[in-house]
Amino acid sequence: MRQTTTSIKSLPSRRSFLKSAAGVSATAIAGPVIVPRSVFGANAPSNRITVGVIGLGTRGIPDMQLFMQNDDVQVVALCDVNRSSKGYRDENAVMGLEPGLQAANEYYASRKRSGEFQGIAATSDFREIIGRDDIDVVAIVTPDHWHAAMTIMAAEAGKDIFCQKPLSLTVQDGKDMVAAVRKHQRILQTGSQWRSHARVRFACELVRNGYIGELQTIRALIALNNKQGPGPGWKPMPVPAGFDYPMWLGPAPDAPYHKDRCIYKFRFNLDYSGGQITNFGAHALDIAQCGNGTSLTGPVEVEGIEAEWPPAGSLFNTALRAEFRARYANGVELICASEPPYFGTRFEGSEGWVEFSQGSVKTYPESLASVELKANDQRLPVVNPLRTVAKPGDFYADHVRNFLDCVKSREEPIEPVEVGHRTATICHLGNIALQQEKRLDWDPVAEQFVNDDGANRMLARPRRSDWNSA
Ligand SMILES: NC(=O)c1ccc[n+]([C@@H]2O[C@H](COP(=O)([O-])OP(=O)(O)OC[C@H]3O[C@@H](n4cnc5c(N)ncnc54)[C@H](O)[C@@H]3O)[C@@H](O)[C@H]2O)c1
Questions:
Q1: Pocket residue to mutate for ligand 1, from 66, 164, 259, 276, most atoms within 8 A of Cβ
Q2: Domain range spanning residue 275?
């Protein structure tokens, strides 16, 4: 029997919420009252960037920690619809609101900076975070189907935004996010941290400066599905206590609860994400865009080559294995294919190749790996010039630091909303071409398929109920 969920209609609409949000004080959720930064001098604790983190799962808790380790940041509020449960990416991982709160409290308690630790507010309704006028920044670390609605609401409420990759669920979502961020003059950093990696920068600089000759082909490698889902005939499960399932579904279609629909494994259901094409594609194709110098545009043609799908009726419905190709206006061919074990991007030119994978660069000829760029070579931005000795993993911290610096300077971060949108667009084009099983012409200026109404209809999906207008 089909299990129904409480209607989201019982929640205030986005518009009525925003109207009342201006009047919501920080005390609306239990927690510290922090005076806006502008009231104090530059070195006062209240001059710190105040952050609310939405989504405390596989990536959310580490993202929260990356924010907290900056002395000029105070995480003041946390949100998750899941109070706590076992079984995220790692089946034994315990995550959600309470584990996130515990980690944050322990961190701040251990720092013992006088006057700093005042407690952190916790809620299951992100609108309470977005409605607080003492919060400068929201980090959106929820499944992809929430990114657009939350980003748009946060931008309208005047927040700067760190939004995880893939930036959008659909091309239309991405366009709406760009429009909202620009209209409200917000800073948005996409959580595509590999752009902040020194070796990615070097690989892309080799390509951009012709060290591999003329760029001909880019191979973006994405991993195979790393999780299995229930097959045809799967049965709904009761919603666990402490899990606000209607608020997890949000803008997505109503659907019966199953644990494998939700935490971590949402990746493999097209209602919430796009499989490894969007999950790892958002990294591998982002590097492709960077090396090709096409970060603000996209290919002109896309074609599904092959895809293996789960049996009809399975809970997972994203491709188990896929390959698609695309072509840019400059003639460069892009091939995106499933290949274990992880992800990587390889640029092939007329005189050699360079590949970034698992944190390191390989080249042909090998000597390219130790090339010293010339003074007049084109350089890509260094996100954290203060870091002179980098340990593995520091690039992610630098990506967050780059965002925080831009929140202060109002300059553009390394992966602004347009760049994240264009990378996510290629992932979506690939998924659409695979489902349409044909070659499609894409107009990257109009952001439309050329003469293909069926494919164009797949560029947008209605957001359910009150989230439709976001
Ligand atoms: N940059 C990276 O390398 C990287 C790595 C992993 C995940 N991600 C991205 O981060 C996002 C989250 O992925 P994950 O693996 O952490 O997922 P996850 O399922 O492990 O965690 C997501 C959390 O968001 C919560 N959530 C869902 N709806 C919510 C809502 N309305 N309000 C508040 N909380 C809500 C869930 O309960 C869950 O705890 C995805 O977009 C994913 O692509 C990025």
A1: 164
A2: 197-385+418-469
